[in-house]
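Q: Here's a chain of 230 amino acids. Please give me its 3D structure as tokens.
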Amino acid sequence: MIFRSSVKRVESVFTDEDGSVYDPDSSVLEFYDSTDTLIESFDEGDCTNPDPGTWYIDYPVPSDAAYGRWRCEWTVTVGTDVYLFVFGFYVWNTIWPTEQEVRNALNNISTDRVSSDVVSYHIERAARRVTKVASSSAEANDIRDAIEACAAYASYLSYALELERAAGTMPPAVSNNLNRLYRECMFWRGIIQGYTADASRGHVFGTSAMNRSLYDDPSRGPSSTRVTKP
């Protein structure tokens, strides 16, 4: 996990279509924070090249870095060809629950069913939503528990919807688990908003909005991609 003031290594092994390694003629690395703001830019002179085709940079994350998903855009030039590689990583807030803590709430559901990227994505989304609605008197531990509960619900919802799309129906056991996680999410949101801890009062928080609109595409999650510039 990457926190403020820690170091993130971005590394790539450049290979051609035949699998042979190559060193780019030049390269530019640009780091963008979670607000899509360009923070710093580097060139190949700032990188380490320990072996043919292998390049990396150890990026010191700023002490005031914005929390959430960052990306590094690594543009390399080989002759007249230009390639863009995109690497994503999260700058974690210490108050956020870890991925494993969310998985524990999901009975350690495997990464085959819910990927690490999906869980991390929903932790960030839940953190934004929970901290926005939390009362000024909410305790830090309660905020953390609320983020965990909401991230667990949203992560499981992505899994449940994939099952429903594939099978045409949602298995009863999955539906029951989803309802349980939803009630826990509402319970903790009630706690941090200062309402009586009564999960049945879900309408206070906009039940239908929480169930669909807040995570309007729960299956999506950030991932590293490669594209080629024209």
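Q: Can you summarize the key feature?
A: The radius of gyration is 21 Å.
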